[in-house]
């Protein structure tokens, strides 16, 4: 299993940058922001003016989200150093206090930054598509789809993260 991230703040910035973008576009924008900051830290984000961040390719909304993340991290509202002591649901509730961080983003942090073993992001489109394909599920009703997905995934406990990674990988095979 991979190690926990050493920089949850940068991971959260990356998560915000990546929302609703292709992997390549998100990587380009994040790289520009990293070049601008040196190392992406709350204080460096707060020191940057809006136009400098926008010039990296972030929308006005995402600039607001990244600034809110930096402010909440700096003022102590968001305590990233305490995430390890929180349950998965507590981490999610803590992170969604930031503008631009929703449940899906928090679940990605749980899975990839904190290496939590039993996360199931039922709202993730890739997971939905892979389960539709693998299990012959129907997308006719979103509530029914998610309910059926959760029923299937319950047998994967306590390793749902591992199974989700396999599902994502299955989408890469053509």
Rounded Rg: 17 Å
**Number of strand segments:** 0
Shape: globular
Element pattern in H and E: HHHHHHHHHH
Give the second-level CATH assignment, the architecture of the largest domain. Orthogonal Bundle
Helix content estimate: 55-70%
Helix vs. strand class = mainly alpha
Q: Give the CATH topology of the largest domain.
A: Endonuclease III, domain 1
User: In CATH's first tier, which class of the largest domain applies?
Assistant: Mainly Alpha
The overall number of domains is 2
Residue stretches low in confidence (pLDDT < 50, at least 5 long) are none
**Rounded mean pLDDT score:** 93
CATH homologous superfamily title of the largest domain: Hypothetical protein, domain 2
Our measurement of the CA-to-CA distance between the termini, rounded to an integer number of angstroms, reads: 26 Å
The biggest sheet, with number of strands, parallel, antiparallel or mixed sense and barrel status, is: none
Annotation field: number of helices:
10
Tell me the β content.
under 5%
Folded structure, characterized:
- It is a single chain.
- This protein is mostly helical and 174 residues long.
- The chain folds into two domains: 8-113, Hypothetical protein, domain 2 (Endonuclease III, domain 1, Orthogonal Bundle); 125-171, no CATH class.
- The chain is built from ten helices and no strands.
- It has helices at 8-18, 23-37, 42-47, 50-54, 60-74, 88-95, 103-113, 125-135, 142-154, 160-171.
- Helix 1 packs antiparallel against helix 5 and helix 8 packs across helix 10 (160-171).
- The chain is globular and about 50 Å long.
- The two termini are 26 Å apart.
- The mean pLDDT is 93.
């Amino acid at each position: 299993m991979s190690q926990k991230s050493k920089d949850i703040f940068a991971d959260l910035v990356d998560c915000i940058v990546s929302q609703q973008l292709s992997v390549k576009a998100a990587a380009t924008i994040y790289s520009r922001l990293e070049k601008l900051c040196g190392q992406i830290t709350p204080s460096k984000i707060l020191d940057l003016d809006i136009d400098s961040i926008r010039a990296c390719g972030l929308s006005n909304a995402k600039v607001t989200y990244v600034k809110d993340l930096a402010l909440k991290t700096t003022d102590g509202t968001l305590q990233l150093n305490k995430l390890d002591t929180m349950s998965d649901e507590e981490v999610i509730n803590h992170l969604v206090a930031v503008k631009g961080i929703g449940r899906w983003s928090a679940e990605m942090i749980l899975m990839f930054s904190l290496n939590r073993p039993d996360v199931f992001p039922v709202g993730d489109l890739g997971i939905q598509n892979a389960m539709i394909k693998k299990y012959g599920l129907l997308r006719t009703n979103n509530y029914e789809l998610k309910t059926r997905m959760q029923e299937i995934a319950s047998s994967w406990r306590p390793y749902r993260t591992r199974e989700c990674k396999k599902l994502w990988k299955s989408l890469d095979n053509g």
